[in-house]
Amino acid sequence: MKYMLLINSAPADLAEDVPGTSFEDWQVYDKTVKNSGIFVAGHSLADLTTATTVRVDRDGQRTIATDGPFAETREVLGGYYVIDVPDLDAALDWAARCPGSRGGGSVVVRPVAEFEV
Amino acid sequence: MMDSRAASAVESVFREERGLLLASLVRRFGDLDLAEEVTAEAIEAALVRWPVHGVPPKPGAWLATTARRKAIDRLRRDTTYAARLAILQVEAERAAPAPTAAPGDDLPDERLLLFFTCGHPALPAEDRIALSLRCLAGLSTPEVARAFLVPVDTMAKRIVRAKKKIREARIPFRVPDPDERPERLAGVLQVIYSIFTEGYTASSGPDLQRLDLAEEAIRLARILHKLLPAEREVTGLLALMLLIHARRGARTGPDGRMVLLADQDRGRWDRTMIEDGLALVHVALAGGPAGPYGVQAAIAALHDEAADLTTTDWPQIVALYDVLLTLTPSPIVALNRAVAVAMRDGPQAGLRLIGELADEPWLRGHHPYHAARADLLSQLGRTAEAAAAYRRALELAGTEPERAHLRRRLSSLES
C-alpha cells in the first residue's frame, strides 16, 4: 500500500532548533528510507519564493500568480516521500522518524488512491 | 410465527457473541464490512432456523460456522473483491504472523484486535467511541445514535466514515507491539472512559444519568480486563467505574433531582459493586507505581468506604490528588484537589487554591469550577460573591437536574 508523506516545515517564527533536525539527520533518514525497500518516490522542494500558481478559468483564460511576499507565519510544504508499506501503522512510524515531524514541523500521511482497472 | 423464546435466545446470543464473532471474522478475512455483513446474515439465518429446529447446543459456534460459510460464498461470487482481500491477507501476514489457532471448539477471542483498531489514534475521537460501541458492545447504529442524542442518519454517516478510513487508509487489525502498547492502550482506555463519563453525566439533555452508556462502558472494560488481566491500568479503570457506578441509586432523588455526595443516602450504594471495585483497586495499586486510573480508583474507593463526608479520609485523598497531578497535570485535577483541600483545611484554604486557577481558560467555561467556588464563598458568608458564581455556573451547566440544583442553591442563598 502506497502512502505519501507530505512534509510541512514549521513557520519560521515557530521553528525550534531541536535535536534530530540537522542536515545530517535528514541524510541518515533519506538513506534509511531508500535502503529499506519501501521508497517509491521523494523530493525536497525549492524555497517557496520560487513557487508559481497557475489557474485556468472557464474561458480558457490563464492566470499566473505568485503568492508572495510570503508570511513567515505559515506552514510550508517542503518535500514529500511516497513509500510502500503494509499498513497505516507502518506509514505513521516512518512519518514519526522523519526529521520533518520535529521542531514544530509536521508530516501529513495520505494514502495514495488505488483505482481498480 | 417466530417463537418469542427462541427470538429472545437469538437476541441475547447475538448481544453476547456478536463482538466475539465479528472479531474472529475480521481476523480471518481482514475486512470489517464483510465481517459485519456476514455476521448479520448469520443472525438472520438463525432467526429462521432456530425456532423450527431448536437452538443448537453451541449457538456461538453455529453462528461462526454459518458466517464463515457465507463469507466464503461471497468471495467466490465476487472474485475482484476476493483478489483484493487476498493481497490484504498476504500483506497482513507479512506484517504480523498469525498466532496458532486455539485448540478445541471455542472461538479464539480476537476482540483485542478490534479494541485497538476501533480505538486507533488515526480515527477522530467521536468515531472511536461510535465504532467501539457498535463493533465491541454490539449496539445497533440507532442505539448508538440514541445514546449520543444524534440523528440515526448522522451516526450512520459517522460509522461509514470511520470504516472507510480503516479500509482505505488501511488501519491494521493487529495488537500493537510491546513498545507502542502503553500509548495505544491509553487511547483504548480513553474511549471506554469517555463512554462512561457521557453516561455518568450526560453533557446535555433532560436526564442527569444515562445508565445504559455507563453499563456499556463497564461491560467493555470487563471484556478488556479478561483479555489483558496483567495490565494494571485496565484493572484500575474497571475499578474506578465500578466504584463510581455503585453510587448511581443515590445520585438522583425520586424526582430526578441531583443529590450531591454530601447528601447521598449511602445505604443506597451498591455494596456488591463496591466490593468488586475494592478488590480490583488492590490489584491495580500493587506491584509498582500506579497509573492515573489506579489513583483515581483509589480516591473513589476512599469515598465509598467512608460512612459520611466528615469521616472521609481527606488527607489521604489530597495526597492521591498530588500523585495524580504529577501523572496527568490538568486544571480539572487541580480543581478537585482544591475541593479536597477545602474539606481537609477549611473553605479559606480551598478558595485560595481555586483563586490560583482563575486564569485557566478551560476552567472559566466549566460550571463545576464556578459551583465549587460558590459553595466555598457561601460557607465563608460572602453571599453576594457566592450568588454571582452560582449564576455563572447556571449559565454553563448542561443538564436540567444540574441547573435545578444550582437554582436551589441560589435561592437558599438569597432567602
Automatic annotation (TrEMBL), chain A:
InterPro entries assigned: Dimeric_a/b-barrel, YCII
Domain YCII-related: residue ranges: 1-115
SUPFAM superfamilies for the chain: Dimeric alpha+beta barrel
A Pfam family reported for this protein in Swiss-Prot or TrEMBL: YCII
Sequence similarity: Belongs to the YciI family.
Protein name: YCII-related domain-containing protein
Organism taxonomic ancestry: Bacteria, Bacillati, Actinomycetota, Actinomycetes, Streptosporangiales
UniProtKB/TrEMBL annotation, chain B:
Domain RNA polymerase sigma-70 region per the UniProt entry, residue ranges: 14-78
Organism: Sphaerimonospora thailandensis
Family of this protein: Belongs to the sigma-70 factor family. ECF subfamily.
UniProt record, GO biological process: DNA-templated transcription initiation
The entry's keywords: Sigma factor, Transcription, Transcription regulation
Protein name stated in the entry: RNA polymerase subunit sigma-24
Every RNA polymerase sigma factor 70 region 4 type domain range: 122-166
UniProt-listed Gene3D superfamilies: 1.10.1740.10, Tetratricopeptide repeat domain (1.25.40.10), Winged helix-like DNA-binding domain superfamily/Winged helix DNA-binding domain (1.10.10.10)
SUPFAM superfamilies: Sigma2 domain of RNA polymerase sigma factors, Sigma3 and sigma4 domains of RNA polymerase sigma factors
Keyword Repeat (UniProt): no
Keyword Hydrolase: no
Alphabetical list of PANTHER family matching this protein: BLL6612 PROTEIN, BLL6612 PROTEIN-RELATED
